[in-house]
Write a structure and sequence with these properties.
There is one protein chain. The chain is α+β, with helices and mostly antiparallel strands. The protein has three domains: 53 residues, no CATH class; 99 residues; 131 residues, Gcn5-related N-acetyltransferase (GNAT) (Aminopeptidase, 3-Layer(aba) Sandwich), CATH 3.40.630. The protein contains six helices and 16 strands. The strands form two sheets. An eleven-stranded mixed sheet has the order 6-7-8-9-16-10-15-14-13-12-11. The longest helix is centred in the last third of the chain and has 15 residues. It is globular, with a radius of gyration of 21 Å. The protein starts with 9 loop residues before the first strand and ends in a 9-residue tail after the last strand. This is GCN5 family acetyltransferase.
Length: 301
Amino acid sequence: MASLPPVGSRVSIRYRLPAGTTPPMSDVIGELLAQDPVIMVRTKSDGVVEVRPADVVAVRELSVVPVRTSEIRNLEHAAALAWPGTERSWHDGWLLRAAGGYTSRANSAVPLDFSSSLTGLPAIVDWYAQRDLEPWLALPERLLPIRADGIKHTRVMVTDITATEPDEAVTFLPSPDAAWLACYQRDVPPEVLTAVVDGEVAFASTAGAAVGRGAITTAPDGTRWLGISAVHVDAGHRRRGHARRLCRALLDWGAQRDADRAYVQVLSDNSGAITLYHSLGFRLHHHHRYVDARSLSPRTL
């Protein structure tokens, strides 16, 4: 059976009907109510539909509410400003980012303008080649008609922000110190972590148990977005609620600085992180993936 998103998600499920039925398959779209022992989906018109897990052919998680392409572009613009790499350049509506190869987000080109097209791919490939980097394209769904499957399929999840009581156990720094970097346990230089364009960044920690990064940037439509990233819990402190506590503190930090909404970017196979953010109120906004610009051909466009 295809993997299911957390209960409460909006899904589209294709499933087999009993043998001899015409047509042999059906689809159901609605809110996922249960996964086991029977999948239950509440639809707008048919009530609750039950599906045996063994009959599921395909599952797709959908945004909870309809999302316009312009909303995807605005959010991706804010997210690119929040993780811009250490060098960047605009070319034919694409924002090209480089950071010595550290992290996919900081070393990829993203189409952010209505004028973005594929005619500029040779120049993008050359720009990255001059920096000894692979020319990865960060492709949010629906912004460009590219069918290439790509890698690192990612869920972009969002939630509204409301202020809560500050958590004194969570500390914030304007840049990561040695203790934060030791807990993070990833080889990413501080200059990549602290980079932000026209925004504010902070590094949260809970006494060596967990760390995370928050960045506030403004989208072209005026929405102030808080991006939560680089969340990591030390192996000796896991399953004790540290990640949840840290993220709640980051959400409050954003609310205190007039952020309207928050987003996270989570690999689609990271079920633990998806479940955590879902429990904090985050819901799917859109998907994106990475595609090597050199792999594109007329058949993939």
